[in-house]
Queue: 2 jobs
Job 1
Amino acid sequence: MVKTAQQTLAGWGNYPRVACEVARPETTKDLHALLTAQPDGGLLARGLGRSYGDPAVSDTGVVVDCTRLDCYRDFDPDTGLLTCEAGVSLEMILRDFAPRGFMPMITPGTKFVTVGGCIANDIHGKAHHVDGCFSQCTESFKILLADGRHLTASPTENADLYWANFGGMGLLGIITEATIRLRPIDTTFFRQRGITVPNLDALFDALDEYHHMPYSVAWIDSMATGADMGRGVLTVGDHATIRDLGHKQQRNPLAVSPPSPLVLPFEMPSGALNTTTIRLLNVVLEQVQKRASPISHYEGFFYPLDFIDKWNRGYGARGFCQYQFVVPMENGRQNVRELLEMVSTSGQAPFLNVFKKFGAERPETMLSFPFEGYTFAIDFPVRDGLQDLLRRMDQRVVQMGGRVYLGKDAFLERDLFEQMYPRLDQWRAIKAKYDPHNRFTSNLGRRLGLCD
Ligand SMILES: Cc1cc2nc3c(=O)[nH]c(=O)nc-3n(C[C@H](O)[C@H](O)[C@H](O)COP(=O)(O)OP(=O)(O)OC[C@H]3O[C@@H](n4cnc5c(N)ncnc54)[C@H](O)[C@@H]3O)c2cc1C
């Protein structure tokens, strides 16, 4: 019998906070036991809770913390194929496989995510235009279904179930293990370059000019408005070879780093992030980006935010939300400008703005977020009026032919969501086939009509 306990859970944004019944199974056998012990109750898998809003919380049924399902099953160094349990994190994979010359093929901006969470959100990284999403490196996975079956899903076996899980938000079953392709590497370092841009037009031009670079992401000063709007630094990069490294780095080209010793020990008062502190922090960020060294370890290149553990506490008790949208290339420049102007005239105080250009979408997926276009992620402290601003932005994003990333969402409403994802009906049919009684359910799922 797997025990459950009451716990208040939230996503990374600490908004909303939800009282949940939580279980922490150790094995797949425990998962089966949980499923049988809850013949009518809901279940929801949870990884490391790095999605921002309410995808990994549920105030009904049991939230199944999968982080103890963290065993490796098999690794083939000739192909780079790793089979592991779904609770294995990218941080573990880096720690254990980078010294052997491999790293995750696709990674988000934090390494503290599980393989199960990466599949459920079909996460993307800085190289989406070259490498695509996590679906691109996932050969197959095993999933425990509502009726107790434990199926393998791949592009050739239960293909509907396979594709529906990328962006499926954990609502089709519990992924227990996966086979993913790792990237062979010569070093754990990256060559990088920061290009300072004075405004939005220059940023778009720079993105076009450096489109051939595999990794690219721009940080934008969220407080720059008017003619300066879009001011920031575009960072582009590629994997470094041993010859690119300095003497000291060459002695340990596959170096991994220990966990960060820095932790934000408590929640900051909600007022700590005001326009003055945000302006100051943006100045610091700008200097850090501009002066980035030409060779960077993966920690600084992919995961600068992981440097301070629990940095999300900096937003205070009310929490924050990250709003990420993508709009098509066509009219992209003017549409992004309009959306940023909505933010700058709203009176809300965005903190971190990150900008990228996505490559083509994977047409077999149904709820995967990226498609070819411009994507912006904006952190907002939760304040009065934020929901209203985001609703207005959602409406414009829909009219522009865009969509919002569910992995970071806390506010989107069902009517607008239904207009954003054109293959939603196909996904709902697969949900009805594999989970007809809606056993897998979450707060996000109920809010958006993905489950009852
Ligand atoms: C600092 C930071 C930077 C980020 N950068 C990016 C980025 O660049 N690109 C990007 O795409 N995302 C990014 N994210 C979001 C993050 O990558 C995703 O939300 C990811 O899915 C979180 O993984 P997790 O293990 O924490 O999953 P959780 O947040 O715990 O869960 C996320 C979803 O996965 C489901 N799930 C988890 N485990 C399983 C399982 N075993 N079986 C079935 N479903 C499961 C849950 O039900 C939930 O719906 C970032 C987040 C942070 C905090």
Job 2
Amino acid sequence: MEQASSIIVVGAGIFGLSTALHLARRGYSVTVFDRQPYDESRYSYFQGADAASADINKIIRSAYGGQAEYQELSTEAITTWHEWNAELASGQTVPPGMSSRDQVFVPNGNISLSSDTELPTWELACIEGMEKAGHHNTQLATTNPYHCDLAADRALSSHMDPFQQRSRGKQPVGVLDTTGGMAIADKACRFALHKARAVGARFVFGSKAGCLQSLCYEGRKVTGIITRDGHMHNASMTILACGAVTPVLLPELDGLCEATAGSVMLIKIPTKSQLWERLGPENFPTFTFNVRAGSAGGLYGFPRNEDGYFKIGYRGTKYTNPIRHRDGKERSTPVTRWSKAERDGMPIGTHLTDFPRQAFRVIQSFLDEYLPELQKEGTQATTTRICWYTDTFDNHFLIDRVPGKEGLMVATGGSGHAFKYLPNIGNWVVDIMENSKMDRPAVQAWRWRTLGKEQPVNHLMQGSHGPRALGNIAVHKESELKQASVTRL
Ligand SMILES: Cc1cc2nc3c(=O)[nH]c(=O)nc-3n(C[C@H](O)[C@H](O)[C@H](O)COP(=O)(O)OP(=O)(O)OC[C@H]3O[C@@H](n4cnc5c(N)ncnc54)[C@H](O)[C@@H]3O)c2cc1C
């Protein structure tokens, strides 16, 4: 593909932002369209920004069990996260509304905790994988006295026991990934947007001029897009990076990608609370808990942020919102408190502020046991959020050309773990567009694929009668949650 070619990217979440940044760096003429007014909302969920990437924080980690391809990708990303922090601090690149005191990455570590009595296989594989790659003593097991001493030397003892289990006579079981921490998600997106613009990428935001209405075709070749304001935009390559909306826009993704909901709760810690210091990022890592324990587990969380929000999420059940589309097929369709009843000409149901009872129960029992101080303080859930992931059946991303449609690519399928690659995933997308270095294991894993005889990691397309459909599960009204103490509903 000629460098002079014009490329359209649809979607300015992390896939779109990163792709635009790297395309522009390599000299392509790139225009990104997004239906959301990100210059106004600044990627803030509280300002109505409605995307997986628009959030207060996201976990960053290197350790990936035996998945060396993601471990290497994380290592590459984390190097750049540190560079981005340095670039911000130097005052060289400061997006509007941010200051050189801001950070986009907080390296407070990520601990993977378990209720087992011994380290689970996955955690052991994380230590082995990182040691094998030469990242010695970056993974510290809470059950290993030598690792505990190393943590103490690095002033990380509180991070090794973030829920102070030892004080209750319990042994924490987990591995602290000291290379990890968290991205300050909204600021990181703003930083990437600013950098992409600085190297020449153009961004068209808004519900009309920025919203993809349809693709343009010449025969089987996609020649660009038509936006909701009726304008046609030509491109030699169109890259769809519309997050959880992508499988709704592109029916060819049936069975490969699906929008699924995670349940997120924000609890405001008062500045005067005893927990303020303890849950701050200086003392508290990001954490996951019983991630591979099915519907009874799948928790993750963060230190309280500068506004006092302590965020905890549940992913043990991946809920869906199957809606029948014009072709008669049901597809899970993202719906949130910010959704309109109809979007892009497609019905999506009503907006949603309710919270799955199951998610609440699992979060509640975790907090009761691991952070009983919250109950003592009678702290309330300040906000709940249903946030939409784009899952593939095998949890690998999807970055490839769309079969049978020349000039069309997808960069999606984040499957709950793509944010950390904001600095570098676009470089890989551009390589793939250029058919360069295609034999790398990650690139192979991200190819367009169909489910064979293997057991899928995620069972997709279970439809409106399925057990995970939001219409079939019990929910709490948000008002109920706000009135009750977090731990006493
Ligand atoms: C609750 C939650 C927690 C997560 N936690 C982590 C974590 O801790 N660590 C981690 O690494 N990853 C995490 N992830 C995964 C990560 O956030 C996602 O993989 C990533 O943000 C997806 O980015 P995206 O660009 O694919 O989609 P999105 O961020 O959803 O962006 C898609 C964009 O497309 C736009 N769009 C949609 N339709 C159209 C249209 N018709 N026209 C124009 N624009 C359109 C949308 O407005 C949106 O801006 C989490 C995800 C969720 C949902």
